[in-house]
Amino acid sequence: METYTGIPEELKLTVLKRIKPTENEREKLLAIQEELTSQVKAAAEKLGIPDVLVKMVGSAARGTWLSGTHDIDVFISFPEETPRKELETLGMAIAREVAKHAEHAEDRHAEHPYLNIIYKGFDVDLVPCFRVASASQIKSAVDRTPFHNDFVKPRIKGHEDEVLLLKQFMRGGGVYGSELKTQGFSGYLTELLVIHYGSFENTICAACSWKPGEKIDIMHHSEIEHEEPLVVVDPTDPKRNVAAALSLDKFCMFIDHCREFLKSPELRFFFPASLLPLEDSEILERLESRKSTQLAIVFKTPDVVEDVLYPQLYKMEQAVAALLKEYDFTVIKTGVWSGKTETAVMLELISGTLPNVKKHVGPPVWVKVHAEKFKEKYQGAADVFGGYIENGKYVFEIRRKYPTAKGLLEDRLMSCSLGKQVHQSVNEGFEIIENAGICRLKDPNFRVFLRKWM
Predict the structure, then answer these.
(1) What are 324-369's pLDDT values in tens digits?
(2) What does each C-alpha distance from 108 to 66, 118, 306 come to in angstroms?
(3) Are 88 and 70 spatial neighbours (Cβ–Cβ below 8 Å)?
C-alpha cells in the first residue's frame, strides 16, 4: 500500500498565487461594497422607506472569493412584520433606484423578485429579505443567507486560503456550483467542509472514503433524515441539508477527483487544460470508430434563466430515453447542451434502426378467452408476417411501427413530458439530426461538449 506523503506546500502556494485576490482587488471590492451600501440607504431615504438595513453577504463578504470573480450580494432587509407584497414592491423600488447608477439591470426571480445589476464591472444581486430572529423562522428562502454569514465569518478566519483551494479544486473537477445546471457544491458548502475538517487537505482525504448517505452535522443538532448522497446539516437551520442540490454523479465525481489527485498531486487538477472544439473530420472519425447512432434533438433555446431551463432539459432527456426504450431502442447514454440560440438533447443508441419485424408474445394457449381473442386479432391481419406457438404461448411476428429512432422522435416527441418553456420551444419547431448531420452545429461551445461526449 502506498504511503501518503501529503500535498506539496509548493503546489498549494502556486495555486493560491493564481486564485487569491490581490490587495488592489480587495480594496476595489470594499470600495464598491461601501458605495452600494450608501446608495441603498440613500434610495430608501429618498423613497421615504424607514427601517431598512443593508447587509453584504456571500463569499465577497467573508473573504472567500476567488480572484477574477466579481460577484457581490447586497441584502436589503425589512422588518419581519412587513407584508410580503410590500417587501417585494419596496425592495424592488430601492433596487431600481440603485440601478440608475449601473451599466445594466435585469429583473430576476427566485422565491420572490430581485434585481441583478452590472455596477462598475461587478455582478451585483440586490435582494430584498425579511429581518427574522433566526434562520429556523425564515419567511422566504433568502432570509437564512445573512445567518450563514454570521456563522461562517468568525469560524473561517485564518482558513480563507483553504476555502479558495477547495473551490478551485472543485472547479477543476467540474463539480463547483449548486445551480441546477451543475448540481454541484455551493460556496457555502465548501466553507462548511473546511470548518468541519479543518483544511483543504483534510477535506480531500476524508472525501476519498465518502459513501452515499455521508452526514456532517457541525453543531450536532439534527435528527432529521435526508435522502441525498451527502447530508451537511445547515448549522443555522437544522431542518435543511446544505448539500441538497448535489447530485449523486457530482458527489462521485468529486470522490474520484480527490482519489486521483492524492495519487499524483498536480496543478492540472486545479487548472485542467482547455478542450478544443471538435472538428468535422474528428466527428466523422469518432462516428466511424464507435459504430453507434448519434442523435441530436435541436430546437431554439427558450428565453428563461438557467435554473428554470436545465431542470426541464433533464426532464426531457429522461422522457425521450424512456420513449426510445418503450419502442425497443437501446440507449447507451443521454446528455444536454444549451447555447444562446440553439439547444440540443443528445442521445447515443446501439442502433438507430431496428428490423421491420417485431416479435409479439401473447397469452398461454390454455387461457382460452384471452388466447382466442389474441389469435383472432393478429391471424391473417395486415402487417403480420406469421404466427406460431412457442413455450405454450401464441406468438405473432408483426410489422414494427417505428423501425427508426429518428422517425419515432419526429412523430412522438411532443407526447413526451418536456416542461412548460421547453415544450413551447419544441412545439415551435425542432430538428432530429443523425450521425454526420451533427456537423451542421457549428457553435464552438457545442463542439467542446461533443469532445467530452464522443
Answers:
(1) 999 999 999 999 999 999 999 999 999 999 999 999 999 999 999 9
(2) 24, 13, 11
(3) no
pTM score of the predicted model: 0.91
215 dihedral zone (left: phi>0; alpha: psi -120 to 50; beta): beta
Kindly report, residue by residue over 132-189, the tens digit of the pLDDT.
988 888 898 899 999 999 999 999 999 999 999 999 999 999 999 999 999 999 999 9
Closest residue by Cα to residue 245 from 193, 172, 186, 304: 186
CB 130 within 8 A of CB 140: yes
For residue 321, the SS3 value is: helix
- Written as one string, the DSSP assignment of 103-138 is SEEEEEESSSEEEEEEETTEEEEEEEEEE-SSGGG-
The residue length of the chain stands at 454
What is the rounded CA–CA span in Å between residue 368 and residue 335? 47
Helix (H) or strand (E) holding 162: helix 160-172
HEC letters along 221-279: CCCCCCCCCEEEEECCEEEEECCCCCCHHHHHHHHHHHHHHHHCCCHHHCCCCCCCCCC
C-alpha dist (Å) from residue 368 to 82, 158, 360, 363: 72, 80, 18, 9
C-alpha–C-alpha distance, residues 232 and 217, integer Å: 6
Q: Are 320 and 337 in contact (CB under 8 A)?
A: no
H or E stretch at 415? none
Asked whether the beta carbons of 264 and 272 are under 8 A apart, the reply is no
